[in-house]
Design a protein that fits this description.
It is a single chain. By secondary structure, this protein is an all-alpha fold. It is about 80% helix and about 0% strand. The chain contains 9 helices and no strands. Helix 4 runs antiparallel to helix 5.
Length: about 190
């Protein structure tokens, strides 16, 4: 029991540290998203709009970032259902506190096609993987631990981390996954798990 309490205190400390590093995580995600954008969309005007949207997002200007996403969709309607656009909308909506709308956007990512060609398939896999992670976070916030566990299982099994991710990303992924399961089990009263 004492060992379990110590682990619980460590997990609480990790949650606090994780919240402090949230901005670092978002910045890392943004850099990876920009890289994936360049793979999927090339360096045209559409890419410039999306890169500018990323910059605004990183600066906390979520409304302006969303406006550029909408402008991109107006100029390139076929992109409306792309995994990147839906994922980005979900991130912005989550930051704006529009959790239900964010949840809908992340769920839509899971229903997108895989794209054409290797690069687009890799990008789609990436966004599906991280959409599952965001959906698990939302489910935990809503205290729906069964649904959170479902998304973590999808995250791990159906949409595993894409192979092109760096070793550091894999370590962060393992930590976030363990933290997600620990939160679920703690709130279910299954401390031994």
């Amino acid at each position: 029991w004492k060992w379990g309490c110590e682990i619980g205190k460590e997990l609480q400390g990790e949650v606090v540290r994780l919240k402090r590093w949230r901005q670092v995580k978002i910045t890392t995600t943004i850099l990876l998203l920009v890289s994936a954008l360049n793979l999927c969309f090339g360096q045209g005007k559409d890419s410039k709009l999306l890169e500018e949207s990323e910059t605004l997002f990183a600066d906390g200007k979520f409304d302006s970032s969303m406006l550029l996403i909408q402008e991109h969709i107006n100029l390139y309607p076929e992109s409306k259902s792309s995994s990147y656009i839906l994922y980005k909308q979900g991130l912005i909506l989550k930051e704006q506190g529009k959790i239900n709308d964010a949840e809908t956007a992340f769920k839509q990512v899971l229903t997108t096609g895989d794209g054409e060609g290797f690069d687009q398939k890799q990008a789609a896999a990436y966004y599906k993987h991280y959409s599952c992670e965001r959906l698990a976070e939302i489910s935990i916030e809503k205290k729906d631990y069964d649904l959170a566990e479902h998304y973590i299982n999808l995250h791990d099994n159906k949409y595993p981390i894409p192979p092109q991710c760096l070793l550091n990303e894999m370590s962060a992924y393992n930590f976030r996954r363990a933290l997600g399961y620990a939160t679920i089990y703690k709130n279910r009263g299954k401390i031994n798990k």
